[in-house]
Amino acid sequence: MGMMYQQFQTTCDMCHGTGECIAEKDKCPDCSGNKVVEKQTTAEVNVEKGLSNGSKIRLAGQGDMRGNKAFDLVLVVNEEKHARFTRQGPNLLLSVDLTIEEALCGFQTQFEHLDHRQLVLRRPRGEVTRPGEIMCVRGEGMPVVGSPSAFGDLLVAFHVQFPVSLSVHQCEDIAKSLPGPNTSHSTVSEYPCYVSKQELSVVKEEIQKSEEAEEEDGAPNVGCAAQ
């Protein structure tokens, strides 16, 4: 049986796979012959108006170096939530609370925009604002990327705040100004049913207890009679 030769590859202990060996006396004191040094730099970034959440900004040649090549530095835009405004693409959504008087008789309210301008929303006296109604203010939304003069819209959603209760005199005053009810106060049924307000969580708990009690009784189901 002759001699057997085996060939394999491994990383060189001298050059560590770089293919180049530098004598100790010739090594740079800053990089120790690695040709790369770690340092912190300040990069100036231009964030364009209107960029959306998750947008990427690429800085060519500002990343780490591998050999003689410098890679790019990629920045990802993380959009913070605002206390009043919600972004919907190029549009902005603003929620405004109104009293019943403002909803029925008109209103005027002022708010501060994102650029610190004071804007006024006005609805003439006599115009009714319905709960959930949305008013569109053209050109007061977010800037459109690539179009410096283009802006989205501002969508204003109105929420009407109803009182918890009213006195008898308040009900009488309202009845004088508003159309009468569509329902009749006469009792048609022999057993009238009066509706009262109750928390939904309490109702669910009572239903669950009732179902558990029925299961504990173990009443057999009624089957079909054989013919």
From TrEMBL:
Keywords assigned by UniProt, alphabetized: Metal-binding, Repeat, Zinc, Zinc-finger
Q: Which GO terms describe its molecular function?
A: Hsp70 protein binding; unfolded protein binding; zinc ion binding
List the CR-type ZnF regions, as residue ranges.
1-40
InterPro entries xrefs: DnaJ_C, DNJA1/2-like, HSP40/DnaJ_pept-bd, HSP_DnaJ_Cys-rich_dom, HSP_DnaJ_Cys-rich_dom_sf
Entry-linked PROSITE patterns: ZF_CR
Q: In its UniProt record, which GO terms are filed under biological process?
A: protein folding
Fetch the Pfam families from UniProt: DnaJ_C
Which part of the chain is the CR-type domain? 1-40
Q: Where is this region: Disordered?
A: 205-227
- What protein name is recorded for this chain? DnaJ like protein subfamily A member 2
